[in-house]
Request: fold
Amino acid sequence: MRVGILRAVVALLLTASLSGCVGTAATGGGAVRLSLVAYSTPQEAYGKIIAAFQKTPEGRNVTFSQSYGASGDQSRAVAAGLKADIVAFSLEPDLTRLVKQGIVAADWENAPAGGMVTDSVVIIGTRKGNPEELTGWSDLTKAGVEVLTPNPFTSGGARWNVLAAYGATSARGTQHARGVEYLGTLFGHVPVQDDSARKSLQTFTSGKGDAILAYENEAIFAQSKGQALDYTIPDSTILIENPAAVTVNSAHPEEAGAFLAFLHGPVAQKIFADNGYRPTAADVPGARSFPTPPGLFTIADLGGWDTADARFFDPAHSVMADVERRLGVSTGKK
Amino acid sequence: MATVVTAPSGAVAPGGAAHARRAPARLRRSRATAVGLGAATLYLSLVVLIPLVAVVWTSVGDGPGAFVAAVTTPSAWASLTLTVGVSLVVALVNLLLGSVIAWVLVRDTFPGKALVDLVIDLPFALPTIVAGLVLLALYGPDSPVGLDLAYTRAAIVVALLFVTLPFVVRTVQPVLGEVDREMEEAAASLGAGPWLTFRRVILPNLVPAMLSGTALAFTRAIAEFGSVVLISGNIPFRTEVAAVHVFGQIESDDTTAAAAVSTVLLVVALVALVALDLLQRRGARR
Amino acid sequence: MMRYALRVVALTYLALLLVLPVGLIVWRTFGHGLGPFAASLSTPSAVHAIQVTAVVAFWAVLLNTVFGVGVALLLVRHEFPGKRALNALVDLPVAVSPVVVGLALILVYGAHAPVGAWLARVGIPVIFSIPGMVLATVFVALPLVARAVVPVLREMGDEQEQAAHTLGAGPLQTFGRVTLPGIRAALGYGIVLCLARSLGEYGAVAVVSGRLVGQTQTMTLFVEERFAAFDQQAAFSAATVLALAAIVILLLTKLLRSKGGA
Reply:
């Protein structure tokens, strides 16, 4: 008899957990579940945007599962089978990888703003009050200065950092040798190369390093969380452009498309702006204004991502592969 | 879902009397044994055996040369030597302090001893990431005592000491508890001082247990991930342990290299455990 | 004198290593009162994390209990070739690093791996979803129930089972009426250990989970993710809950150990 009771309890727990299982993993009661896979930094922003989207008629019955991590790693995960309806990365090549695998349609660039949902710039973050007075690229290579930047072979943010440094010191690529030399010197001042932009920020706020190369929005985020850091926008820096797209094999293409359109719309763009991202839409009502550095350049000025990737970030033969090899740091695999 | 295994109980009577009634039962039993064994083997294969074989298989998938190359890259090699080195240090510290703690728990009495005894097992029950967090809180940048060990090798040692604390203590405690007091008293009455008594009478009985606990502590230490990941900073060549290195390789989709380093870790652990097994069997023979 | 010296050394070491750090976290968690603690654990992602942890732990404990009892009976009551190998195999998970566990499972059950691809085709995703996490947790907690039950089974002897058999009881009856009551305390102890391990697993699930907040995030992953997002309150709160669960489990094991002589 006791066995009977035991059996009943087990059966009850089983059904409870099974329904719990289903509840957390699938749709229930007509609701649609979309999976958002994004890079590490916009987690807070997307949380708020999703809440706002769910107040719209298109988003009423939509729930989200969200995954955040290093841009390159997330892209590779989706390629390896991580289910995603919307993907958002910190740089174009991580999206192009999925286009090549047929997971994202090739016409993603036809969306507003060329498929980009947010912009930012590479900044130099420092301790509060900037005691070491680090405001420009040349300051970072002064003796004894430690600079943090993630590993460019795993982190999208790091690639932006590298290209910003290169573009600024090589006069937008016209003085290639100078730029390469600067990169070699700069990375000699990097004590830790975390694998994602967010982890790099973590390391900096934990007390390591004198300066950090980061997205402007990361610095703003850290400040909003009460972290003691200041930042300077160097005169010459790169415009960071972050793409987002829907996947081809999404089970809910309509809702996914609606969410993507929402991301380009004024409500989401304002939320992005509130979280420190530069909106890609023109004239977003109520958005804060961001200063434009005089020497701002874009990836297009450096020949576009294909050229830059091949030249700088090929794991076998490239500028950064050489730099990292000389430092003995892992270049991972593409 | 796994098939429910109810291996039927039944007496095994090796060489027992062959009653006419027993014969059909034995047939039933050996069939039951086969079913149970089959189910158990299936479960173990699906969960443990095949995945582990896959790791070793993948590691040599590109040939032995690639295996060696993956294991001897500067950062991989650094992580392996760091891991083994730190784990040896930690194992030795545990050998000493674990034995001291076991001694205090068995031979000493003081108020609150039962509580102390309970607390020893906390590292067994506490999730490793929580262990890392609590150590970071006390010995990291926000430390209330001003002791910031974050991003140093000392941090790894502290984290590993935390997670391996119970091993030596719990293997030595029962043995120490059963040591024959009469022999100690006899030695004392013959004029032996406490240290001599300890060395000649007690210690020999404890050595197998001490070594056994140390080997377990070592094996645990080389595998550790969760508790070091927060406090050590995972700086390649300085504070990146092997498990963290493998994690990075998996994230970068470099499964062959990850599998290679993993295989080395598995081999080291197995060597330690085989040595332990041999030691125990030798100890049992005495 | 020596005795006091040893006592001081032991207690100081334990205080510095164990008591103070854990105490600090609990202190910091409730530093702003019960309100923030409760609030940080009532967010949707926190609630999901608790649910996911419960589901994963439940299945892992259930599977390993069934397996553990079965394999214990096999090892103690039966003879067969390869018994030593089975014994060693059951103990194997202890020697494997959690990250290696994750890698091993990805290599077999990942979407591009032989078994995984087939499973994905028939609609059972493993990696990046709950079944994968259950699998990872089953792996790391595998030996615990078996190891707790084996010594007691051995000590118990099979006379009672033999008696039941000669009286005409079927195998299931014998198990339920004779064996199970005898190993109850040890089984309880093993289940509690298995539960502790399943609740606390981090490395293996970190590798196979895909970090899907609200879907494949256990409490341990939640702790790490919240910490990385500068949300110390949530990270500490979840860590404290896990620490308190660990202490409760310790008390339970102590109770069961003294009861059944496991």
Notes: Chain B touches chain A at residues 73-75, 140-141, 148, 150-151, 233-237, 248-249, 251-254, 257 (CB under 8 Å). Residues 22-59 of chain B form the longest helix (38 residues). Chain B has twelve helices and no strands.
